[in-house]
Amino acid sequence: LTGSLQQLTEFGIIGLFSQQVGARPAWVSTGIGDDCAVLDLGGEKRLLVTCDMLVEGVHFLSDRISPRQLGQKSIAVNASDIAAMGGEPLAAFLGLGLTPQTSAEYVRAFRDGLLEGCRELGVELLGGDTVATRTDLAVSITLLGQVRAEEVVLRSGARPGDLLFLGGNVGDSAAGLRLLLHPDLILPPEHREALLRAHLEPRPQLRLGRFLASHRLAHSLIDVSDGLLQDLGHICASSGVGARVDCARLPISVSATEAASRSGLDPRDFALYGGEDYVLLFSAAPQDEDQIRDGGRALGLEVHPIGEITAEAGVSVLRDGRWVSPEREGYDHFR
Amino acid sequence: LTGSLQQLTEFGIIGLFSQQVGARPAWVSTGIGDDCAVLDLGGEKRLLVTCDMLVEGVHFLSDRISPRQLGQKSIAVNASDIAAMGGEPLAAFLGLGLTPQTSAEYVRAFRDGLLEGCRELGVELLGGDTVATRTDLAVSITLLGQVRAEEVVLRSGARPGDLLFLGGNVGDSAAGLRLLLHPDLILPPEHREALLRAHLEPRPQLRLGRFLASHRLAHSLIDVSDGLLQDLGHICASSGVGARVDCARLPISVSATEAASRSGLDPRDFALYGGEDYVLLFSAAPQDEDQIRDGGRALGLEVHPIGEITAEAGVSVLRDGRWVSPEREGYDHFR
Q: Cβ of B335 under 8 Å from any chain A Cβ?
């Protein structure tokens, strides 16, 4: 390992820290490498732990997201990782870095959004650390959750022949981000609002995750945070399988299609590479498709089959009648 | 709440986030306001959770602490919060913000220090998030630990008549910080090294915490992170008591005394206000003094009685034959 950090990808850095000397103790069910760590501290349930850090200027622009939305989104994106294990969130811990320019009003609005998000998701804010930073606001949240031992769903359980499902639209968040960065883009207000909401106020699919886990329907499960193809790549790498995705079956909203068309872009690129949709991506047995789709509808969700898991490694995408290999992966903060 | 953030102290901000709507659920044994949150998720043990954030330029200067020391100190200061509950640490989660200027060598050395610290303390690093920041390195660690339900020691159990004890020297860390900030200060190398080590490589008193908790000796317990008087103030406020401290009994090292004298300062100020000593401060029944001091010696530690808990509120300090009220509190990041 030599050279500058920019040569390392985010996943390279994570790999650096997961180099393990000796065996993990027995109470570690799952360490680094899934949406949450899974700890067996006794009892019927497993403890789930996830943490995410958001930095101003990198993950958000403080003039494009309100402090209230930032508070709510901070807890929502962590809860999405709990959903991606089939669990329910319990307790949050907040590391908050404030600059000398941060106003007390800003902090109060952030607090309101965070606590409102906690209430909606059934989360207690139980601690944290507030520090001064010199230039950038930083929000670091660690979220604890739990799930019965036999209901934990990992990334690594995908099996050849599984169908691949999405719990909701992909691409709306990327389209919303584009609107934020290109405020001059003209779009009917209902589309604009829908896309901005998808990006600024994501809703983690906790109830869908619990449904899949409690009925043992999902073989593998992840949330779409880095981008559909990148997150699908995580499932494939963990499970030792490949996948095929049919672009024609991707759930892409009219709003995202409209935003893409007015930007001269292909909405399928928003959907495949965009990230931050926080919908669940999972694989399951084909015979369970009806039960899954009915269960989704009972929760007010349309669950979409978008492809299948293959024994052969690699992800292929059917696009305009041709199978192609994705030429680029999702967003990497260090690229 | 109006005006700029600089009008708020760190504790004011923490208060903002601990405003509670409705009762805490039954599984929350202790929320915001102690060294750790205490969660009852079933079983004989309670889960302890603490989180700390360190920001370059505020909490550390990257040219004064090696990346290896920074890694080790990051986990040590969190483990000290677990020690302050009588617990044992288990699992760490790392939020790491890296700037474009951070070298891969720096990250690797930080990683080595962090993992070495984890090994020494019996901690597994089980997850985290690595992000880009624009200007400052940031380290956010959440540490989980556990302790048997009946052995949890809070800040709030101090009783009038208790003796106050310190698990080790206070002031060394503040003296070490002074040496870092005034490199021209001339001091014999053995003193210099001892003080720098105290500041850069603190060792949490986990074994002392376990000893006190498992023998039910400490009525109240905290670690000295903000400064002796400020941390004592936390015990007093939580317990609804006051305290008297005899300056003549404070354990102050020859090294700190020497550094103070060569700086034209009073070493008792390092000891009372300095912070970051990460020794345990606790109160216990006077009749347990011998058992406590013997137990400390068995761990290779000298435990020092420094004063007592009073029914009357407020902290008084006996200094040069006069009882005085501390005129200033410990370090506040926002002042």
A: no
